[in-house]
Protein backbone atom coordinates (compact mmCIF):
# COMPACT_ATOMS: atom_id res chain seq x y z
CA UNK A 1 0.00 0.00 0.00
CA UNK A 2 1.38 3.25 -1.04
CA UNK A 3 1.15 6.12 1.41
CA UNK A 4 0.96 9.63 0.24
CA UNK A 5 3.69 11.88 1.48
CA UNK A 6 2.29 15.02 2.80
CA UNK A 7 3.85 18.41 2.27
CA UNK A 8 6.54 19.10 4.91
CA UNK A 9 7.41 15.43 5.45
CA UNK A 10 10.02 15.54 2.68
CA UNK A 11 12.25 17.91 4.74
CA UNK A 12 11.90 15.64 7.80
CA UNK A 13 12.98 12.62 5.82
CA UNK A 14 16.02 14.42 4.46
CA UNK A 15 17.02 15.53 7.97
CA UNK A 16 16.68 11.96 9.24
CA UNK A 17 18.89 10.71 6.43
CA UNK A 18 21.54 13.35 7.20
CA UNK A 19 21.52 12.45 10.89
CA UNK A 20 21.90 8.78 10.01
CA UNK A 21 24.91 9.60 7.83
CA UNK A 22 26.48 11.73 10.59
CA UNK A 23 25.90 8.95 13.14
CA UNK A 24 27.55 6.48 10.79
CA UNK A 25 30.62 8.77 10.47
CA UNK A 26 30.84 9.27 14.25
CA UNK A 27 30.80 5.50 14.80
CA UNK A 28 33.80 5.22 12.50
CA UNK A 29 35.89 7.70 14.70
CA UNK A 30 38.50 6.04 16.94
CA UNK A 31 38.08 8.00 20.18
CA UNK A 32 40.99 6.32 21.98
CA UNK A 33 43.37 7.14 19.18
CA UNK A 34 42.20 10.73 19.00
CA UNK A 35 42.59 11.10 22.77
CA UNK A 36 46.15 9.75 22.61
CA UNK A 37 46.97 12.15 19.78
CA UNK A 38 45.62 15.03 21.85
CA UNK A 39 47.70 13.99 24.88
CA UNK A 40 50.84 13.78 22.73
CA UNK A 41 50.23 17.28 21.39
CA UNK A 42 49.68 18.67 24.90
CA UNK A 43 52.88 16.98 26.14
CA UNK A 44 54.83 18.34 23.17
CA UNK A 45 53.57 21.85 23.82
CA UNK A 46 54.54 21.60 27.52
CA UNK A 47 58.03 20.38 26.65
CA UNK A 48 58.43 23.17 24.14
CA UNK A 49 57.38 25.78 26.71
CA UNK A 50 59.82 24.37 29.29
CA UNK A 51 62.60 24.41 26.72
CA UNK A 52 61.86 28.03 25.78
CA UNK A 53 61.85 29.04 29.47
CA UNK A 54 65.19 27.28 30.00
CA UNK A 55 66.79 28.98 27.00
CA UNK A 56 65.46 32.38 28.09
CA UNK A 57 66.73 31.96 31.66
CA UNK A 58 70.10 30.62 30.47
CA UNK A 59 70.49 33.57 28.09
CA UNK A 60 69.69 36.02 30.88
CA UNK A 61 72.23 34.35 33.19
CA UNK A 62 74.97 34.18 30.56
CA UNK A 63 74.37 37.73 29.35
CA UNK A 64 75.93 39.34 32.43
CA UNK A 65 79.35 37.59 32.24
CA UNK A 66 79.37 37.95 28.46
CA UNK A 67 78.76 41.70 28.71
CA UNK A 68 81.34 41.99 31.50
CA UNK A 69 83.92 40.09 29.49
CA UNK A 70 83.17 42.22 26.44
CA UNK A 71 83.59 45.46 28.38
CA UNK A 72 86.85 44.26 29.92
CA UNK A 73 88.14 43.24 26.51
CA UNK A 74 87.22 46.61 25.02
CA UNK A 75 88.97 48.41 27.88
CA UNK A 76 92.00 46.17 27.43
CA UNK A 77 92.18 47.02 23.73
CA UNK A 78 91.75 50.72 24.48
CA UNK A 79 94.52 50.57 27.07
CA UNK A 80 96.83 48.73 24.66
CA UNK A 81 96.16 51.27 21.94
CA UNK A 82 96.51 54.09 24.47
CA UNK A 83 99.92 52.85 25.61
CA UNK A 84 101.15 51.94 22.15
CA UNK A 85 100.32 55.33 20.68
CA UNK A 86 102.93 58.05 21.16
CA UNK A 87 101.95 60.43 23.96
CA UNK A 88 101.90 64.05 22.88
CA UNK A 89 103.87 66.49 25.02
CA UNK A 90 102.62 69.88 26.16
CA UNK A 91 105.04 72.69 26.99
CA UNK A 92 103.93 75.75 28.95
CA UNK A 93 106.16 78.74 29.57
CA UNK A 94 105.43 81.57 31.99
CA UNK A 95 106.71 84.76 30.41
CA UNK A 96 108.85 87.10 32.44
CA UNK A 97 106.59 89.34 34.43
CA UNK A 98 103.88 86.66 34.80
CA UNK A 99 102.90 83.70 36.99
CA UNK A 100 101.00 80.90 35.25
CA UNK A 101 98.77 78.26 36.84
CA UNK A 102 98.42 74.86 35.15
CA UNK A 103 96.08 71.93 35.82
CA UNK A 104 97.70 68.62 34.83
CA UNK A 105 95.83 65.59 33.39
CA UNK A 106 95.59 64.05 36.90
CA UNK A 107 94.12 67.33 38.26
CA UNK A 108 97.35 68.22 40.05
CA UNK A 109 97.99 71.98 40.08
CA UNK A 110 101.23 73.75 39.22
CA UNK A 111 102.16 77.42 39.57
CA UNK A 112 104.95 78.45 37.19
CA UNK A 113 107.08 81.39 38.24
CA UNK A 114 108.17 84.00 35.71
CA UNK A 115 110.62 82.72 33.08
CA UNK A 116 109.89 79.04 33.87
CA UNK A 117 108.91 76.16 31.57
CA UNK A 118 107.00 72.96 32.34
CA UNK A 119 106.68 70.00 29.94
CA UNK A 120 104.15 67.23 30.59
CA UNK A 121 102.27 64.56 28.56
CA UNK A 122 98.69 64.94 27.36
CA UNK A 123 97.84 61.99 29.62
CA UNK A 124 99.75 60.00 32.23
CA UNK A 125 100.22 56.28 31.52
CA UNK A 126 102.13 53.27 32.78
CA UNK A 127 101.59 54.00 36.46
CA UNK A 128 103.93 57.02 36.38
CA UNK A 129 103.31 60.75 36.27
CA UNK A 130 106.41 62.48 34.96
CA UNK A 131 106.95 66.17 34.16
CA UNK A 132 110.04 68.23 33.35
CA UNK A 133 110.78 71.63 34.89
CA UNK A 134 113.12 74.45 33.96
CA UNK A 135 112.88 77.37 36.35
CA UNK A 136 110.69 77.52 39.44
CA UNK A 137 107.32 75.94 40.20
CA UNK A 138 105.05 75.19 43.14
CA UNK A 139 103.37 71.77 42.90
CA UNK A 140 100.13 70.66 44.58
CA UNK A 141 100.11 66.98 43.60
CA UNK A 142 96.80 65.12 43.53
CA UNK A 143 97.13 62.01 45.75
CA UNK A 144 97.38 58.65 43.96
CA UNK A 145 99.22 55.86 45.77
CA UNK A 146 99.28 53.70 42.63
CA UNK A 147 101.01 56.31 40.45
CA UNK A 148 104.20 58.07 41.48
CA UNK A 149 104.67 61.73 40.53
CA UNK A 150 108.18 62.63 39.32
CA UNK A 151 109.60 66.06 38.50
CA UNK A 152 112.80 66.08 36.46
CA UNK A 153 115.07 69.11 36.24
CA UNK A 154 117.74 69.93 33.67
CA UNK A 155 120.39 68.99 36.24
CA UNK A 156 119.19 65.36 36.54
CA UNK A 157 117.55 66.13 39.88
CA UNK A 158 114.36 64.11 40.45
CA UNK A 159 111.69 64.91 43.02
CA UNK A 160 109.24 62.07 43.67
CA UNK A 161 105.92 62.07 45.51
CA UNK A 162 102.48 60.44 45.56
CA UNK A 163 100.44 63.37 46.82
CA UNK A 164 101.91 66.45 48.47
CA UNK A 165 102.90 70.13 48.03
CA UNK A 166 106.42 71.31 47.36
CA UNK A 167 108.46 74.00 45.63
CA UNK A 168 111.36 73.57 43.20
CA UNK A 169 113.66 76.41 42.20
CA UNK A 170 115.94 75.37 39.33
CA UNK A 171 116.63 78.43 37.20
CA UNK A 172 119.53 77.86 34.82
CA UNK A 173 121.26 81.08 35.92
CA UNK A 174 121.12 80.23 39.64
CA UNK A 175 124.13 78.62 41.29
CA UNK A 176 121.95 76.57 43.64
CA UNK A 177 118.96 74.27 43.09
CA UNK A 178 116.44 74.30 45.93
CA UNK A 179 113.65 71.86 46.81
CA UNK A 180 111.31 72.89 49.63
CA UNK A 181 108.61 70.64 51.12
CA UNK A 182 105.43 72.40 52.24
CA UNK A 183 103.46 69.34 53.34
CA UNK A 184 103.38 65.58 52.93
CA UNK A 185 106.37 63.51 51.85
CA UNK A 186 108.90 63.68 49.00
CA UNK A 187 112.13 62.00 47.96
CA UNK A 188 114.92 63.82 46.15
CA UNK A 189 117.42 61.85 44.10
CA UNK A 190 120.27 62.66 41.70
CA UNK A 191 123.51 61.09 40.43
CA UNK A 192 125.33 63.02 43.16
CA UNK A 193 123.32 61.35 45.93
CA UNK A 194 124.09 57.78 46.97
CA UNK A 195 120.57 57.36 48.35
CA UNK A 196 117.43 59.46 47.92
CA UNK A 197 116.98 62.24 50.48
CA UNK A 198 113.64 62.28 52.31
CA UNK A 199 112.42 65.72 53.39
CA UNK A 200 109.99 66.63 56.13
CA UNK A 201 107.61 69.64 55.92
CA UNK A 202 109.45 72.93 56.35
CA UNK A 203 112.74 71.46 55.20
CA UNK A 204 114.75 72.50 52.15
CA UNK A 205 117.37 70.63 50.15
CA UNK A 206 119.95 72.85 48.46
CA UNK A 207 122.29 71.48 45.80
CA UNK A 208 125.22 73.59 44.61
CA UNK A 209 125.89 73.64 40.88
CA UNK A 210 129.49 74.66 41.60
CA UNK A 211 130.75 71.81 43.77
CA UNK A 212 127.57 69.61 43.82
CA UNK A 213 127.45 69.89 47.62
CA UNK A 214 124.06 69.02 49.15
CA UNK A 215 122.64 70.42 52.39
CA UNK A 216 119.28 70.13 54.17
CA UNK A 217 118.05 72.95 56.41
CA UNK A 218 114.85 74.21 58.00
CA UNK A 219 113.45 77.26 56.22
CA UNK A 220 110.47 79.61 56.33
CA UNK A 221 107.76 78.24 54.03
CA UNK A 222 106.25 81.70 53.79
CA UNK A 223 109.47 83.16 52.42
CA UNK A 224 110.13 80.29 50.02
CA UNK A 225 106.62 79.70 48.63
CA UNK A 226 104.66 82.96 48.97
CA UNK A 227 105.60 83.90 45.39
CA UNK A 228 102.89 81.58 44.00
CA UNK A 229 100.33 83.74 45.81
CA UNK A 230 101.70 86.83 44.06
CA UNK A 231 103.88 88.00 46.97
CA UNK A 232 107.54 88.91 47.19
CA UNK A 233 108.93 88.13 50.64
CA UNK A 234 112.46 89.10 51.67
CA UNK A 235 114.02 88.32 55.06
CA UNK A 236 117.55 89.64 55.38
CA UNK A 237 117.91 88.97 51.67
CA UNK A 238 120.97 90.22 49.83
CA UNK A 239 120.52 92.85 47.15
CA UNK A 240 121.79 90.51 44.43
CA UNK A 241 118.93 88.07 45.13
CA UNK A 242 116.39 90.88 45.38
CA UNK A 243 117.47 92.27 42.02
CA UNK A 244 117.20 88.81 40.44
CA UNK A 245 113.65 88.28 41.70
CA UNK A 246 112.54 91.78 40.73
CA UNK A 247 113.96 91.29 37.24
CA UNK A 248 111.90 88.15 36.72
CA UNK A 249 108.74 89.48 38.32
CA UNK A 250 108.67 92.76 36.38
CA UNK A 251 110.52 91.71 33.21
CA UNK A 252 113.22 94.34 33.64
CA UNK A 253 117.00 94.50 33.38
CA UNK A 254 118.34 95.70 36.73
CA UNK A 255 121.96 96.70 37.07
CA UNK A 256 123.89 97.24 40.31
CA UNK A 257 126.46 99.94 39.63
CA UNK A 258 128.50 99.55 42.82
CA UNK A 259 129.92 96.32 44.23
CA UNK A 260 129.22 97.44 47.78
CA UNK A 261 125.52 97.10 46.94
CA UNK A 262 125.90 93.33 46.59
CA UNK A 263 125.99 92.77 50.34
CA UNK A 264 123.09 95.06 51.22
CA UNK A 265 120.32 93.13 52.98
CA UNK A 266 116.61 93.90 53.12
CA UNK A 267 113.53 92.55 54.92
CA UNK A 268 110.20 93.37 53.33
CA UNK A 269 106.98 91.89 51.95
CA UNK A 270 105.48 93.17 48.72
CA UNK A 271 102.06 92.18 47.42
CA UNK A 272 100.55 94.47 44.79
CA UNK A 273 103.23 97.17 44.62
CA UNK A 274 104.59 98.20 41.23
CA UNK A 275 108.29 98.11 40.40
CA UNK A 276 108.49 101.88 40.81
CA UNK A 277 106.86 101.62 44.26
CA UNK A 278 109.29 98.92 45.39
CA UNK A 279 112.32 100.86 44.20
CA UNK A 280 111.04 103.93 46.02
CA UNK A 281 110.75 101.93 49.27
CA UNK A 282 114.25 100.54 48.80
CA UNK A 283 115.61 104.08 48.41
CA UNK A 284 113.99 105.09 51.70
CA UNK A 285 115.60 102.21 53.61
CA UNK A 286 119.17 102.51 52.29
CA UNK A 287 121.51 105.18 50.84
CA UNK A 288 120.80 104.24 47.24
CA UNK A 289 119.16 105.85 44.24
CA UNK A 290 117.28 104.06 41.45
CA UNK A 291 116.82 105.26 37.89
CA UNK A 292 114.33 103.69 35.47
CA UNK A 293 114.99 103.86 31.73
CA UNK A 294 111.75 103.25 29.85
CA UNK A 295 111.81 100.73 26.99
CA UNK A 296 112.59 101.91 23.48
CA UNK A 297 111.14 100.70 20.21
CA UNK A 298 113.55 98.82 17.94
CA UNK A 299 113.63 98.91 14.16
CA UNK A 300 111.37 95.84 14.02
CA UNK A 301 108.84 97.76 16.17
CA UNK A 302 109.49 95.54 19.23
CA UNK A 303 110.10 97.14 22.60
CA UNK A 304 113.13 96.39 24.74
CA UNK A 305 112.90 95.70 28.45
CA UNK A 306 112.84 98.44 31.01
CA UNK A 307 116.25 99.08 32.48
CA UNK A 308 116.83 99.95 36.12
CA UNK A 309 120.13 101.31 37.36
CA UNK A 310 120.78 101.16 41.12
CA UNK A 311 123.75 102.91 42.63
CA UNK A 312 124.88 104.34 45.94
CA UNK A 313 124.20 107.97 46.70
CA UNK A 314 127.17 110.24 46.29
Outline of the structure:
The protein contains five helices and 18 strands.
List the helices and strands and how they pair.
Layout: H1 9-28, H2 31-84, E1 89-94, E2 100-103, E3 109-112, E4 116-121, E5 128-140, E6 148-153, E7 158-161, E8 165-170, E9 176-183, E10 186-189, E11 197-199, E12 203-208, E13 214-218, H3 221-225, E14 232-238, H4 239-250, E15 252-256, E16 265-270, H5 275-285, E17 288-293, E18 306-312
Parallel strand pairs: 5-6, 15-18
Antiparallel strand pairs: 1-4, 2-3, 3-5, 4-5, 5-8, 6-7, 7-10, 8-9, 9-12, 10-11, 12-13, 14-16, 17-18
Essential attributes:
314 residues; alpha+beta; 13-stranded mixed sheet; 3-stranded mixed sheet; 34% strand
Task: Report on the architecture of this protein.
- The chain is α+β, with helices and mostly antiparallel strands and 314 residues long.
- Helices cover 32% and strands 34% of the residues.
- The chain is built from 5 helices and 18 strands.
- The protein has helices at 9-28, 31-84, 221-225, 239-250, 275-285, and strands at 89-94, 100-103, 109-112, 116-121, 128-140, 148-153, 158-161, 165-170, 176-183, 186-189, 197-199, 203-208, 214-218, 232-238, 252-256, 265-270, 288-293, 306-312.
- Strands 1, 2, 3, 4, 5, 6, 7, 8, 9, 10, 11, 12 and 13 form a 13-stranded mixed sheet that branches. A 3-stranded mixed sheet has the order 15-18-17, covered by helices on one side.
- It is rod-shaped, with a radius of gyration of 45 Å.
- 20% of the residues are buried.
- The mean pLDDT is 85.
